[in-house]
Fold this sequence. Notes:
Strand content: 15-25%
Shape: globular
Radius of gyration: 19 Å
Number of domains: 2
Largest sheet: 5 strands, mixed, barrel
Structural class: alpha+beta
Amino acid sequence: MNLKTAIIVLHKTxxxxxxxxxxxxxxxxxxxxxxxxxxxxxxIHSALSQLHPLSIIEAELSDKNRGDLKNVKEFRTLxxxxxxxxxxxxxxxxxxxxxxxFRCIHEVEPNPSFYEFLVKSVLLLEEMDSGFANFHxxxxxxxxxxxxxxxxxxxxxxxxxxxxxxxxxxxTPQIGSKCFSEADSSILATILQYREESMHMLRIxxxxxNSFATAMTEYLAYHMGHQINVRSLDILRExxx
Length: 241
């Protein structure tokens, strides 16, 4: 019996002359691996163009799988995302966010609420007309919150340093603490106070933006227990500096 499911594309690799291997995320399965077969050069190029980072597709999956990869009989694009496809800045952000998720999430289990968060984030990026240079910073903070790693913030935490180990702000770092810099702590406090619809109003200089992304990645890696090597962060640095 074939299954239809919506999937967010995280990573793709051309396999041979007529196939594409996709790693994605769906509400029903969590992380998933798929293989798409398209005949002819035109078919494979058309499929590759549709399967860009963070594209959202509906795939009909065959019950005949190839190892851990599910066979895709057919797929169609669920959302038209011209901004993410055609705007260099947005496509660079999409590349970073999709690689970040690809490196972080390995669970093969249903998580509809997290899937909905990802879809909402993709559509938010698509719809933003300005101020999206800080989108990936907001996403990192939201990802941390939804993954159970905090961080928490109260108005008393202003002008405090954020401690990676305790996942909290402090004015008196203890022995063994690993704290964000003052600038990165301030950015985190600011983002935690912003609602997503006000995110475009954030004003963060390029170098501080890069420093904060690195700090948040180190924070998440500490609590997840493994390194997170997101190579496309270097591309974002070049685009937004």
